Amino acid sequence: MKILSVASEVFPLIKTGGLADVAGALPLALAGHGMHMRTLMPGYPAVMQRLAKTEVVATFDDLLGEPARILAAKHEGLDILVLDAPGFFDRPGGPYTDATAKDFPDNWRRFAALSLAGAEIARGLLFGWRPDIVHAHDWQAAMTAVYMRYTGLQNIPTVITVHNLAFQGQFGPEIFPELGLPPEAFSVDGLEYYGDVGFLKGGLRTAWSITTVSPTYAQEITTPEYGMGLEGLINARVADLDGIVNGIDTAVWNPETDPHIARPFAAGSLKKRAVNRQALVERFNLDDDDGPIFCIVSRLTWQKGIDIIAEVADWIVQQGGKLAVLGSGDQGLEGALLAAASRHRGRIGIVIGYNEPLSHLMQAGSDAILIPSRFEPCGLTQLYGLRYGCIPVVARTGGLADTVIDANEAALSARVATGFQFTPINADGLRQALRRAFKAYAEPKVWARIQNQGMKSDVSWENSAARYADLYSSLLAKV
């Protein structure tokens, strides 16, 4: 089976979040199920620099106003198609924002162009290769399904995966005439969304199937609390909605072979983690004592509950704990954490920014990872934590609820606990979970049991890839 994936970021070529990890890992996992996935992505400067050898396989004289080419390349086992459109993607900054972290004003055109290129590939643009299924990710690729619906490609099944419903790609109605779609596409059955153009809304309306990245999140987005204004549409399409929890690349995230950590270890050799703990203490200038180290590896935003971390930081220090934080985001939250670090030198360490190797060391050296997200479609950092014996302390929401088994009395007695969940998602809820974590940490055998059980968890893509393979097969059967 041939599948075209359309995504705005793909690890290891470029990454801002979990979308990239999924887009990079799923094709490799599907290969074991007899499926060939090619991934179309933008030709950002970082991507163009990393691809050693490319071949021009298609050209556009005018792709929504810019000349463009499609380049084919192989990279670390991935079959990549790059939309090389310098007018859209050859610019400083990140994939979506400029150097001042402001959204590029033409993001609507950039990612409509990516989607239109995907639809043309589905139409047969590439010599000798046409997909059986098209799989689009998030609002940046959602228009692929829209272009296919309104340009006569309704016989090829489409899947859209929502990685975070909060990001919808909503733009003013004045852009619609520039999209190259028939007038009827600007309707409630297409792109029209409260008078605006909704890229994600259009994808949710036109794709054959909708998936989210965890079963609990799939349930949550049918409610007003989590549906972000789209719950009505999602409820209307609930029969086509599936929640498939993400996996992680267990070759990249493997404490036995990880080149980014100070000393490899396994579930049977947890004492070796001490070397990584020492390296972490030195990296964050923390006191070298027996208090538990809690880490945060996250975007520093309200959604991620970082204001809750700032509120309980002093309390964690009072209880004898330490904090190591890696991330960037809201300046106010960055400032609150930096202020806490200045109040508690040796107890709280902060690194502002994104650092993939350091994130590996933090999972290998910290005792627990804090994830107090107000909503979390899946989350990957808790899966890394499970893999590395870094016990997750998580809000009971979305994929966090699906992947971490709370260390309540029954789970501890049955020896199946892998972490700590909490609700309500506020400072009091987090403190209650942390009290239980501090108590378990004071009993080394209990703590080691939770670590070992977490490290036994299957966080690979195998089960999830099988679910996607089954979904693709069921869609093809409807053609």
UniProtKB/TrEMBL annotation:
Pfam families: Glyco_transf_5 (PF08323), Glycos_transf_1 (PF00534). Pathway: Glycan biosynthesis; glycogen biosynthesis. It catalyses: [(1->4)-alpha-D-glucosyl](n) + ADP-alpha-D-glucose = [(1->4)-alpha-D-glucosyl](n+1) + ADP + H(+). Keywords: Glycogen biosynthesis, Glycosyltransferase, Transferase. The keyword Methyltransferase does not apply. ADP-alpha-D-glucose binds at residue 15. The keyword Glycosyltransferase applies. SUPFAM superfamilies: UDP-Glycosyltransferase/glycogen phosphorylase. Residues 286-445 form the Glycosyl transferase family domain. It is an enzyme of class 2 (transferase). Its EC number is 2.4.1.21. One of its GO terms (biological process) is glycogen biosynthetic process. GO terms for molecular function: alpha-1,4-glucan glucosyltransferase (ADP-glucose donor) activity; alpha-1,4-glucan glucosyltransferase (UDP-glucose donor) activity. InterPro entries: Glyco_trans_1 (IPR001296), GS/SS (IPR011835), Starch_synth_cat_dom (IPR013534). Coiled coil: none annotated. Residues 2-235 form the Starch synthase catalytic domain. GO terms for cellular component: cytosol. NCBIfam families: glgA, PRK00654.1-2. Synthesizes alpha-1,4-glucan chains using ADP-glucose. Belongs to the glycosyltransferase 1 family. Bacterial/plant glycogen synthase subfamily. This is Glycogen synthase. It comes from Shinella zoogloeoides (Crabtreella saccharophila).
